[in-house]
Amino acid sequence: MPVFRSADPVRTYYAFNTAWAFFGALAFTLSMVYYVRDVGLDPLQMVLVGTTLELACFLFEVPTGIVADLYSRRLSVIIGFALIGAGLLLQGLVPTFLAILAAQVLWGVGYTFTSGADQAWITDEVGVDRAAKAFVRGQQFALAGTIAGTVSAGALGLISLPLPMALAGAGMILLALVLAMVMREDNFHRTPKGERETFKQMAETFKHGLGVARRRPVVRTLVLISLISGLASEAFDRLWSVKILDFQFPTVFGTSAPAFWFTVFALVGTLLSLITSVVLNKLSPERLSATHPNGILAVLSLFEVAAVITFALLDHLWLALAVLWIKTIAGTLAWPIESAWLNRHVDSRSRATVISMVSQANAIGQVVGGPPLGAVGRSSLRAALLASGLILTPIPLLFLRLRPARDSALSGEKSSLGAAD
């Protein structure tokens, strides 16, 4: 029997999710070390790399969605993986600032081709019920792929820092070629004109999101928090590794290479977040699923703020890593609680609109806040990191300002506003 486009859709979905997670971890575990050590990027350039990626994703989300809506989900996924691979390969083989900026555009555009198209494809092929099970199982395969990719990146990085990135790029291109041969698409139907994503629809989504936010305190506050978080996160996410690389790493198993230690740091952070999440879910599930979790979110955000500020001030490797892991744990715990809270305060019809609004606010914050903080980092890395922490300081207070009484009254108002949404 010919193999051309004959693979089982569910197995195909598991396979490319696992491969994408593996190659992603292989490429990005040591990417920051590569940017600093091999390419020699300064703090502003580091942040501009992230800003370029954000802009590419933001600007091309709609045009690339046309391929998935009108022509083929399968084609969109294949194009996306090929472009991501090309971007990774370019920045692994050409260690220059301009090449890395170009790579971000390739990788960002590629990501927008895959974003949503993979889930739409599997849902079309197997139906909603089977797709829901595939999403859960696919996440488990992806986690295994991430762990394997992280460990592989550490081993290969001891040989050469760009090697895991280049291999990940080549692997993604090979994955695209394999999918072109075996990935089937039997149930694709063009998206109706009224349901397609367009720039006009994006503007209307943003306008509608503002309207919902004005009426609902929880939504309004979470949009503002997302914007503030974005203003600070782009610089911190890019610059924390620059600070860590200034420290002297201890020798273990005969090596003190950053490739080894950054792999260890990534694995420890993931493991600590997982353990903390499991423990809190068992010991205090009512707090994590509270109807009005402003208290726990205020505490978690306070930990994040304190961790960022303390990290900026510390001059000891293990203390700096400890507070960095505290930030990671707090953020990991806060995300599902905040997401559930947001979803409880919007009705089904406006849910996607509001979630999109929150994401757009964060992206705008990253694009606006990243470059100025990167410029500060050129003169003083500590000042840039400290500024990131200070920008975050209003967030705990914003959570505490939200009172259950106000939201209860708002919940009663939702039914009367549902038609307006």
Automatic annotation (TrEMBL):
Cross-referenced Gene3D superfamilies: MFS general substrate transporter like domains (1.20.1250.20)
Protein keywords: Membrane, Transmembrane, Transmembrane helix
Mode of membrane association: Multi-pass membrane protein
Record flagged with keyword Repeat: no
One GO CC term on file: plasma membrane
Record-level Gene Ontology MF annotations: transmembrane transporter activity
Localization in the cell: Cell membrane
TM helices/strands, residue ranges: 12-35, 47-68, 75-94, 165-183, 222-240, 260-283, 295-314
Major facilitator superfamily (MFS) profile domain location: 1-406
Superkingdom classification of source: Bacteria
InterPro entries listed in its UniProt record: MFS, MFS_DHA3_Transporter, MFS_dom, MFS_trans_sf
Xref: PANTHER family: PERMEASE, MAJOR FACILITATOR SUPERFAMILY-RELATED, TRANSPORT PROTEIN-RELATED
Protein name: DHA3 family tetracycline resistance protein-like MFS transporter
